[in-house]
Amino acid sequence: MELESTVRALIAKTCLTLDANDYPGYLALCHESFNYRIAAYSPEIRKDMLWLEKSKGDLKDLFNLLPKQNMDRTPLTRHFSIFTVEPAGREDHVKVMSALQVFRTEHQGGTTSLVAIGKYIDEIQLGSNGAVLVDREVRLDTRMLGKGYHIPF
């Protein structure tokens, strides 16, 4: 139970920091060798599509450019539910699969709509200093995201 609680707390923090646009806080939850991907399967071409792939340093650069981007600044809220927690091949690593839903709420609390659904496929390193993300693949079912979303899910 303690393992699942630790994993749940880390994934929740990643969602909360992104929801709050706290990009340094998000990066602090990631290992130095962290790798991030957004992918989706296209039935039309019968292949996986890789939409974004960034190292921790590349994500930092992306986050630093966000204030200069012409983008939709409507707040996003991420919700997750853990499906599985399994050993990841190394003693101090686990692989976690979670359901992901991303919602968009209009400014001043107007309507809320679903932006995307998919899965987080995370590799997490557990250590004496806590847990950190080593790898995250956001595997989206939604393929039509509209314009202006430059923030990782």
Automatic annotation (TrEMBL):
The keyword Oxidoreductase applies. One of its GO terms (molecular function) is monooxygenase activity. Keywords: Monooxygenase, Oxidoreductase. The keyword Thylakoid does not apply. InterPro entries: NTF2-like_dom_sf (IPR032710), Rng_hydr_dOase-bsu (IPR000391). It holds the Pfam family Ring_hydroxyl_B. Belongs to the bacterial ring-hydroxylating dioxygenase beta subunit family. This is Methanesulfonate monooxygenase. The lineage of its organism: Bacteria, Pseudomonadati, Pseudomonadota, Betaproteobacteria, Burkholderiales.
